[in-house]
Structures are given as structure tokens and as C-alpha cells.
């Protein structure tokens, strides 16, 4: 340890997404290669001497206690824990975090010494992993609100790779076997299934960690929600969700010293007749077992919706991934122009 293949793989994965800005300390980490990266892990991050670094991934993350603050992180998976090396800006992004993060080192910010916050989730504390729709994100859950974090990979390949690596590492854990299941009688067995709602697909790993995947009903619920937002303008059976993707909406700020742009996380839905942008809560749903009440906001909140028939043109950027698309719509909104002309000219 480490093998040449592992060092090459970790070096290749150690790249910050070009569209996201990070602090100086994380840029330093992204500049490390091969053996230097492994040595950095052992001397600065690893908590146990004999743990091995198995996987590295850059991803945006959300914490259950701060569902509105998305922050860039370097996610490191070892044989003992998952480490989230966080951007410095996160500590100051929300005034309610003083109890969640220790700020005693804030006096370092003006010096040449750069400090990163590291959130640690030990594999022994891991209880479940919820995979999002179309593998666009996944949520890792421990035993309390402090131990729930969502990785917004926005990439099915990265999600799949991390889940595979996590399963492999969990297989190394020596956990006590589960007690023998108690035989249920007919009525309790029948009653538990007669809830009227299909449970999500669960895979219980040998380490007793649950891997939960969405079922077809989630897409059905989403289609129903979209139809509701369209005020019944379409019939539900013909409404098909063609595309679900986590994206960013670009907001330009003109008039400043240099024209800057901010990226607002959005969920983009494409149906056969409309294009929708939703603000989605990725970290609060499904509700964890300890939750006493539902979150303050719904899972999906409609931010914008346009008819495909009003789409005038689509402009495509020539840069490499991630691709920028500009949708240009006609000014006339929700009006059938021909029908209105007929009424104006020939009707009373």
C-alpha cells in the first residue's frame, strides 16, 4: 500500500470542477499528486495510523442542519471513515453554525496559514445511504442530525463509483451479526404491507448498512406534482418526465467592475410539453427516523416553468463539460395567440 494503480487513480480524480470556486487551502490539496497526496492524507487527515485511503472525489455537499448552504468539498474514503475536507467559506456562510462548527481557529484567516474544516463520518457510525433519482446525488446518514450529509455529484458515474468503493470498504468491517429475525404471525405480516405505499428498494449490506434506491413511484409523484403546477392544463396519463437533471442556473450581475455570474443550484425537469426549474431539498427527504416534524419547506418548489411551444431557440456554448445552454423563449406567456386574434377581430 499504496499500489501504483491506486495512486494513479487518485491523482486522476483529484481535479476540482472548473465551474466551481474554492478556497486557497483546497486548491493546494488539488495540486497534490500521487505519493504526495497519500502522505498529505496520513499526516493531516487520517485519524488512525493503519487506515488506507481508497477513493477521492470532489463534490458539492449539503448538511442536514444547514440545507440551504451548498459547499465544495474534497471527499476522501478510507478503510475507517469518510472525510469531507470543506471550503473555508462554509464556516462563515451561516450565523447559526456556531454550535455546529468550532471557530476557535478563525484568527488564522489573515495569515499565510490556510486552514480547512474537516467533517468526519466514521464507517462504524454509518447507518444508511440513500441514492437520489437517476444517481444525480446520494445522502449518507449516521445516527443523528449532525451525521447526515448529501453529496451532489450531478454525475451518475461519480455516484456509482463512490457507492461501489464504499461497499467494498464496508465489507472489511467486522461487525457483530444481526440477531435472528423473529417469526411474525400472519396478521402482523399482512398489516405491515398494507400501507398503500410501496417502499423504496433496499439493499442491506453485510455490514448492516442500508443502501436505499428510489422506485418508480417517485417519478409518478413528481409527474403528479408537475401536473398540479400546470393548473390541470394537461392530462396526467400523457405527461411523461423525459429528463431529470441537477444543474445550475446562471445569474449574471452586470454593471459591476467585471460582469460576474453566480450559479444557483436547480433541478431541471423536461416533459413532452414543458420545461421546469425546481428548487429541491436534497438532504431532508426521506425523513430520518429521529425527525420529530417535517422540514420547513417542501421537497420540490417550482422556480420557473415554460412551454416548449414558446421556445424560440437554444444557444449552446462551445466549452467542454459542463456545457452551458441558453433557452430563449417568446415574450408571450400562456396565451394561445391565434385564438385571441380570432376573438378580437370576429367576436363581440
Automatic annotation (TrEMBL):
InterPro entries: PH_domain-containing_M2, PH_NISCH_C, PH_PLEKHM2. Residues 111-178 form the PLEKHM2 PH domain. GO terms for molecular function: kinesin binding. Keywords: Cytoplasm. It is found in: Cytoplasm. GO terms for biological process: Golgi organization; lysosome localization; regulation of protein localization. One of its GO terms (cellular component) is endosome membrane. Residues 241-347 form the Nischarin C-terminal PH domain. This is NISCH protein. The gene is Nisch_1.
Amino acid at each position: 500500500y499504496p499500489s501504483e494503480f491506486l495512486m494513479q487513480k487518485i491523482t486522476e480524480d483529484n481535479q476540482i470542477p472548473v465551474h466551481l470556486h474554492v478556497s486557497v487551502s483546497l486548491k493546494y490539496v488539488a495540486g497534490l499528486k500521487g505519493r504526495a497526496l497519500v502522505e498529505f492524507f496520513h499526516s493531516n487527515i487520517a485519524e488512525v495510523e493503519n487506515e488506507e485511503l481508497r477513493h477521492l472525489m470532489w463534490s458539492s455537499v449539503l448538511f442536514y442542519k444547514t440545507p440551504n448552504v451548498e459547499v465544495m468539498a474534497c471527499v476522501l474514503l478510507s478503510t475507517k471513515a469518510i472525510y469531507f475536507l470543506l471550503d473555508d467559506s462554509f464556516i462563515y456562510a451561516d450565523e447559526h453554525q456556531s454550535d455546529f462548527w468550532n471557530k476557535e481557529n478563525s484568527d488564522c484567516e489573515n495569515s499565510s496559514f490556510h486552514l480547512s474544516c474537516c467533517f468526519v463520518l466514521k464507517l462504524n457510525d454509518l447507518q444508511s445511504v440513500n441514492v437520489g433519482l437517476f444517481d444525480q446525488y446520494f445522502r449518507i446518514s449516521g445516527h443523528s442530525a449532525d451525521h447526515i450529509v448529501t453529496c451532489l455529484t450531478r454525475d451518475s458515474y461519480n455516484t456509482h463509483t463512490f457507492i461501489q468503493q464504499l461497499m467494498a470498504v464496508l465489507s472489511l468491517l467486522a461487525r457483530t451479526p444481526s440477531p435472528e429475525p423473529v417469526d411474525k404471525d400472519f396478521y402482523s405480516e399482512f398489516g405491515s404491507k398494507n400501507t398503500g405505499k410501496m417502499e423504496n428498494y433496499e439493499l442491506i449490506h453485510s455490514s448492516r448498512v442500508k443502501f436505499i434506491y428510489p422506485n418508480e413511484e417517485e417519478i409518478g409523484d413528481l409527474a403528479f406534482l408537475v401536473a398540479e403546477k400546470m393548473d390541470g392544463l394537461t392530462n396526467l396519463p400523457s405527461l411523461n418526465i423525459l429528463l431529470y437533471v441537477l444543474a445550475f442556473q446562471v445569474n449574471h450581475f452586470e454593471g459591476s467592475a467585471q460582469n460576474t455570474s453566480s450559479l444557483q443550484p436547480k433541478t431541471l425537469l423536461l416533459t413532452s410539453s414543458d420545461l421546469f426549474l425546481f428548487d429541491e431539498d436534497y438532504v431532508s427527504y426521506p425523513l430520518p427516523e429521529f425527525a420529530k416534524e417535517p422540514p420547513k419547506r417542501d421537497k420540490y418548489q417550482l422556480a420557473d416553468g415554460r412551454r416548449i411551444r414558446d421556445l424560440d431557440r437554444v444557444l449552446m456554448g462551445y466549452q467542454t463539460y459542463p456545457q452551458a445552454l441558453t433557452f430563449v423563449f417568446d415574450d408571450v406567456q400562456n396565451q394561445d395567440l391565434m385564438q385571441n386574434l380570432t376573438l378580437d377581430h370576429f367576436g363581440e
